[in-house]
Write a structure and sequence with these properties.
Layout (H helix, E strand, L loop, with lengths): L2 H26 L1 H154 L3 H5 L25 E6 L5 E6 L5 E6 L4 E5 L4 E6 L6 E6 L5 E6 L4 E5 L4 E6 L6 E6 L6 E6 L3 E6 L4 E7 L4 E6 L5 E6 L3 E6 L5 E6 L5 E6 L5 E6 L4 E5 L5 E5 L14 E2 L5 E5 L4 E6 L5 E6 L5 E6 L6 E5 L3 E5 L1
Antiparallel strand pairs: 1-28, 2-3, 3-4, 4-5, 6-7, 7-8, 8-9, 10-11, 11-12, 12-13, 14-15, 15-16, 16-17, 18-19, 19-20, 20-21, 22-23, 23-24, 24-25, 26-27, 27-28
Helix pairs in contact: 1-2
Length: 509
């Protein structure tokens, strides 16, 4: 029950009590009441006014209560809305607290990883400092070694210059002795000197035998299928090496015409052969852009010399040392090789393709024959061009050094064979024949070991032999039917060997 109703009930109860009390006192106090009736009537009007006034106030209270009720409803609705919003925010706070806890855990994990990586970084920095210190130490050692190496090279070059000077003195002494011996009529003894040294066998006798003019074919050997492009005798021996197309190099006994062994391991066509003066190593120039070095005794490949970028067409070995080899290729380079180390030590560049080369007696000068018909001389150590001679009107196919080193033979596609004096580079003999026509750009001619004769093959299958001193043909050898590609003379004077385009080799005695 509301307070307004309670107030009304209280006023009514008060009025009843007053009426009862008035009736009870009315009888006892009749006279007094009558006497006092007039003032009471006036007092009742006052109470009426007060009642009206109270009723008016009560109505105002009702209106105020209505306004308060409306305001209460509004506030209750707002309270419910606030409570719902508060619940949502509490849920959001819970979610945020969960995210915060996860973020804190992630932060803790990242801090641990950061600490671990910081330790790793510190370790790497320490190792880097150690490596840098080691690098500085190694750099200092390398610089020191480089300076020592330079000093050793300078000393080595000085020693080589001194050796060259001593060799020049020895050559001058040899020339002087040779002139004296010729003056005394002892020319045969002078011919026995090779490289300024008389080479003797174990018994002390000399290998040199005066060359004989060949006349008959001793053996006709079918050495290779598809052609035999290169042949070579061992030093002071009748053993012959042959190289052909895409096959092994073969070793022959020219006394019996039988094969001794085959040297396998090469690729491409064999275009030229060379052998060290101790007969231990054989070198082959190949169209596969490589050179192959065999141990003759075991038949195994010792080295495969790589570095040329086109076919290798010529090779020669120092007569003074079994260590140094020169090669020429169609990449327009001449390379000097060290057989002990197995790699190239120097390269000479030129403009015209080289078909043939040979080394001087001292191993310091290279003679090269080129496609432009010129003979060139090179300092193999510096790569400097020493001299150049226009010896032929067409390509030079062969370059051969005499045994005493005083003459050099060149053959060209102009079908001319020139003999030069190596000291003056003047032509001291020109050899030609009406039927002699060279068959290829690598047709090899040769000089006899006594430096008296020149042998060269022809495209018609004949071999012509000239006398150097007289300049005339002393014999024409006819046994083969296909073009002759190369000739080689044994260092003991006989036999002479010739190889043709069909792969046959003839030995002439």
């Amino acid at each position: 029950m509301s307070q307004e109703k309670k107030a009304k009930e209280a006023i009514k109860d008060a009025l009843r009590a007053l009426r009862k009390r008035h009736l009870l006192e009315e009888g006892a106090h009749g006279p007094a009441i009558s006497a006092l009736s007039k003032p009471m009537i006036s007092q009742g009007s006052e109470w009426k006014e007060k009642t009206e006034k109270l009723e008016l106030e009560l109505q105002q209270c009702y209106k105020a209560q209505s306004r308060l009720s409306e305001q209460l409803v509004i506030e209750v609705a707002e309270s419910r809305t606030s409570k719902a919003s508060l619940q949502d925010k509490e849920l959001l706070i819970n979610d945020l607290e969960k995210d915060l806890s996860q973020t804190r855990e992630e932060c803790t994990r990242l801090q641990e990883e950061l600490a671990e990586k910081t330790k790793t970084l510190d370790l790497l920095i320490t190792e880097n400092k150690e490596v840098r210190s080691q690098l500085e130490e190694m750099t200092n050692r390398a610089q020191k070694a480089e300076s020592e190496n330079k000093m050793l090279i300078d000393r080595w070059m000085l020693q080589k210059m001194q050796d060259a000077e001593r060799l020049n003195e020895a050559n001058a002494l040899y020339e002087e002795m040779l002139a004296k011996l010729k003056a005394n009529g002892l020319e045969n003894l002078a011919r026995q000197q090779v490289d300024g040294i008389v080479r003797r066998n174990e018994d002390g006798t000399d290998h040199f035998v005066e060359s004989t003019v060949p006349s008959t074919c001793g053996h006709r050997i079918h050495a290779h299928e598809g052609g035999c492009g290169s042949i070579l005798f061992e030093y002071n021996s009748r053993t012959l090496f042959t190289g052909g197309q895409a096959g092994p190099v073969k070793m022959w006994d020219t006394n019996s015409g039988s094969q001794i062994k085959s040297l396998h391991g090469s690729l491409g066509n064999i275009l030229d052969l060379a052998i060290t003066h101790d007969n231990k190593s054989l070198i082959a120039a190949s169209s596969s852009n490589n050179l192959f070095v065999w141990d003759v005794n075991s038949g195994r490949v010792r080295h495969t010399l790589t570095g040329h970028t086109d076919k290798v067409c010529a090779v020669d070995v120092s007569k003074f040392s079994s260590r140094h080899v020169v090669s020429a290729a169609y990449d327009r380079t001449i390379k000097l090789w060290d057989l002990q180390k197995g790699y190239c030590t120097n390269t000479v560049l030129f403009t015209s393709n080289c078909n043939a080369i040979c080394l001087s007696i001292d191993g310091l000068t290279v003679f090269s024959g080129h496609m432009d018909g010129n003979l060139r001389l090179w300092d193999i150590q510096t790569g400097k061009l020493l001299s150049e001679v226009a010896g032929h009107s067409s390509a030079v196919t062969s370059v051969s050094l005499s045994r005493n080193g005083n003459m050099i033979l060149t053959s060209g596609r102009d079908n001319v064979h020139n003999v030069f004096d190596t000291r003056t580079l003047e032509i001291c003999g020109t050899l030609r024949a009406s039927g002699n026509r060279l068959a290829s750009n690598w047709s090899r001619s040769c000089i006899s070991p006594d430096d008296e004769y020149v042998a060269a093959g022809s495209a018609d299958g004949t071999v012509h032999v000239w006398s150097i001193s007289k300049g005339n043909i002393v014999t024409t050898l006819k046994e083969q039917t296909s073009p002759i590609l190369c000739c080689s003379w044994s260092g003991i004077g006989k036999p002479l060997a010739s190889a043709d385009k069909n792969g046959y080799v003839c030995t002439w005695t």
